[in-house]
Structures are given as structure tokens and as C-alpha cells.
Design brief:
The complex is a heterodimer of chains A (176) and B (195). Chain A has 176 residues and is of the alpha+beta class. Helices cover 41% and strands 27% of the residues of chain A. Chain A has 3 helices and 7 strands; from the N terminus they run H-E-E-E-E-E-H-E-E-H. Chain A is elongated, with a radius of gyration of 22 Å. Chain B has 195 residues and is mainly alpha-helical. Chain B is built from 9 helices and 2 strands; from the N terminus they run H-H-H-H-H-H-H-H-E-E-H. Chain B has a two-stranded antiparallel ribbon. In chain B, a hairpin with a 2-residue loop joins strand 1 and strand 2. The longest helix of chain B has 31 residues. Chain B is globular. The chains are: A alpha+beta (176), B mainly alpha (195). The interface between A and B is medium-sized, with 28 and 31 residues.
């Protein structure tokens, strides 16, 4: 009896070991490339949000957008709690505290609903927004309101909260 | 060989005949692009896991077979996810959350248990391909209906305004699946009568 359990357990252990080894092999092979890809996506996102000559890394996920020697805005990496998990985004804020733009880097929202938050139809609505922003279920009445995505209120709220927190991060750091 | 393939595609279609993988079917069919993406990803995993499990079928003791299959399937899916993120980042972004969702797709475990553990490698590969493409076909059908009626678009191309949004939400999923299933069963009954 005990011998049988040991044999079964042992075989299962071997199978699990082989699969785990295979996975760590694939992980070793790919993790640097994945990190590079993420870095490249973030750099592209920053350049799209604020057209600047260069970005200065200020730490804490804050990048200062510089034209020559002047700072024209800031790009902040923010993580927000969405419906399906973390939403990673980059928020661009101009020196006059308006939103320069946002890009969703990664999310786990529902395909066809919350996932629409990553599309320009939603993200473009943030450009020029007067911080702090609020979510409305009807048409926005002023530049502080963002229209929620139909059927994805939690996702919409998460993105808006993330954008608002970006301003808080900048204010805490004392740059704005 | 071709009979095995055709079986998965139509005769024993995983969605409308075997009624497997209902959860991802309902969740993912909000647009045609999503349906096709999920279907093809699941097909890749299905073929791979069927082949491996068929190769190992004489080595895995019966008592621990389910646990072993799950470990192998989950391992494949995780590996494919990492490889896509590294070498095909654009595709990975489009497919997004569908890749990890494949692990919970009952079709894969069901075919491993019902077919791959009892048949040779070539036949198992054909079964995986047929089932996977059958799954893709049914997903495409359901998501076409849901995208057109619920979003007023097809493959992203805008068709009309003011669609019935409910169709893309949970109730619409159940309704669409149920009605399509009813229509297909009706057609099958009719064909039986005329034979």
C-alpha cells in the first residue's frame, strides 16, 4: 500500500519536476527580452504622450519631459486596481496641471468591455483634462469629466483614479 | 485520419455537441477578433498537449493521470505565454488575457482523457487539430452574432449605431449560445427525419 503511494507520488513528482525545469528554462531564455520589450513600450508611450527632446529619470517612476533645458511636463508610471487585476499605465501631466495624455501599458480587464480602456477612443478623452478628474455615465459637461465605458464602470473608475493619483505623486515629490 | 479531424470539426463539435469549454466561450465571444484569437491559441495548446500526452500514455499511471495532464497542459500554456511575450509582443498584446485562460478550458483536459491517452500520436494530433478548429469555428459564429448585434461592428468595422449592448454582456452570451444551440439541434433533427 505504502509502496504504491510512494511510486505514484514519485512519478507525479518527476513529471512536475521536468515541467518546472522546462518552464524555468523558458523563463531564463525570455525574461531579459520581455524586460526590454516592456522598457521599449514604456519609452514609446512617453514619447507619444509628450513630444519632448528627452526624458529625465527622476526616480519613483517619474520622468521629466524636457525640451532643451526646460521641463514641459512629467510622465508618471502608475498602477491602479482594475476589475481583473492591476492596470499599469503612464500618465502625462503638463506643468499647468492638465493631462497631456495617457497610455495603458498592461491590464487584465474583460475583453470587449474593460479592455476598451486601452483604446484611443477612451484614452484620447483624457487629453487636456482638468485634474482632478471624475467619471460620469452621461456626456461630459466640462474638461474634468470622463465618460465611463458602457458596461465597464469599474475599469473606467480605476483608470481615472490612476490618473488622479499621478498628480498626487508629482505633488508629493514637490515637482508640481 | 481525416475522419478523426472531421469529427472534432462538426460531428462532435466541442461547443455545440460536447458542450465543453462553456466558460471561456461565454466570456470571450464579445467580438470576432477575440473569438478567432482565442480559438487559434487554444488549438495550438490542444495539438501540443495531445501529442505529448499521447507520447507519454504508457508511462503515466492511471491513478495520477488527471494531475499529470493538468501539470503538462499548464506548463505548455505558461511556456507559450512567455515565448509570445518575448518574441511576438504585438500578438501577445492582442491576445492578452486569452492565453492564461486556456488552462481552464475543459476541452483540453477532456480530449487528453478521452482520446490522447488511448490513441497514437498522429491520430491524437488530428483530434487536437479538429477539436481546436471546431472550437474556433463555433467561437467565430457566436462572436459574429454578438459583435454585430451588440456592438454594431464586425472585426472592428463600424456597421451601425445604437446596438443592443446587452448582447455583449453576460445575459447576451447565454441567450446567443442557447438560441444557436437550439437552431443547430433543430436542423439536425430535421435532417434525421428526412433520411
Amino acid at each position: 500500500m505504502a509502496k504504491e503511494i510512494l511510486r505514484l507520488g514519485g512519478i507525479l513528482c518527476i513529471i512536475t519536476l521536468i515541467v518546472t525545469l522546462m518552464l524555468s528554462g523558458v523563463n531564463l531564455l525570455t525574461k531579459d527580452i520581455i524586460a526590454q520589450n516592456t522598457m521599449r513600450a514604456e519609452n514609446e508611450a512617453r514619447a507619444e504622450i509628450i513630444p519632448a527632446d528627452s526624458f529625465e529619470d527622476m526616480g519613483d517612476g517619474i520622468y521629466a519631459a524636457k525640451k532643451g533645458a526646460d521641463t514641459v511636463g512629467y510622465c508618471v508610471s502608475v498602477e491602479s486596481s482594475g476589475f481583473g487585476g492591476a492596470i499599469n499605465m503612464i500618465v502625462g501631466i503638463n506643468t499647468d496641471k492638465t493631462v497631456a495624455g495617457i497610455r495603458i501599458i498592461s491590464h487584465a480587464e474583460t475583453a470587449g468591455l474593460g479592455a476598451k480602456a486601452a483604446e484611443p477612443a477612451f484614452t484620447d478623452g483624457f487629453v487636456g483634462g482638468q485634474l482632478p478628474l471624475t467619471v460620469t455615465k452621461s456626456t461630459p459637461e466640462n474638461s474634468s469629466q470622463i465618460s465611463a465605458i458602457s458596461g465597464a464602470t469599474i475599469t473606467s473608475n480605476a483608470v481615472v483614479n490612476g490618473v488622479n493619483s499621478a498628480l498626487e505623486i508629482l505633488e508629493e515629490k514637490g515637482v508640481i | 485520419m481525416f475522419k478523426t479531424f472531421k469529427n472534432g470539426l462538426l460531428t462532435e463539435n466541442p461547443t455545440f455537441v460536447l458542450l465543453l469549454g462553456m466558460c471561456p466561450t461565454l466570456a470571450v465571444t464579445t467580438s470576432l477578433e477575440n473569438g478567432i484569437g482565442m480559438g487559434l491559441s487554444a488549438t495550438a495548446v490542444l495539438v501540443a498537449s495531445n501529442i505529448v500526452i499521447s507520447l507519454l500514455r504508457k508511462l503515466i499511471p492511471s491513478k495520477i493521470r488527471i494531475a499529470a495532464y493538468i501539470v503538462i497542459i499548464a506548463g505548455f500554456v505558461s511556456a507559450i505565454e512567455m515565448l509570445l511575450k518575448a518574441y511576438l509582443p504585438e500578438l501577445s498584446k492582442t491576445l492578452g488575457i486569452f492565453i492564461p485562460l486556456i488552462v481552464v478550458n475543459c476541452i483540453i483536459l477532456a480530449r487528453a482523457e478521452a482520446f490522447a491517452s488511448k490513441n497514437g500520436v498522429m491520430k491524437s494530433a488530428m483530434d487536437g487539430l479538429g477539436m481546436g478548429l471546431g472550437f474556433t469555428l463555433s467561437l467565430s459564429l457566436i462572436s459574429s452574432v454578438r459583435e454585430i448585434l451588440g456592438n454594431g461592428s464586425i472585426l472592428g468595422y463600424h456597421l451601425f449605431d445604437n446596438p443592443a449592448l446587452m448582447i455583449t454582456l453576460a445575459p447576451g452570451g447565454f441567450l446567443t449560445l442557447g438560441i444557436l444551440l437550439g437552431i443547430i439541434n433543430f436542423i439536425k433533427l430535421k435532417r434525421k427525419e428526412t433520411k
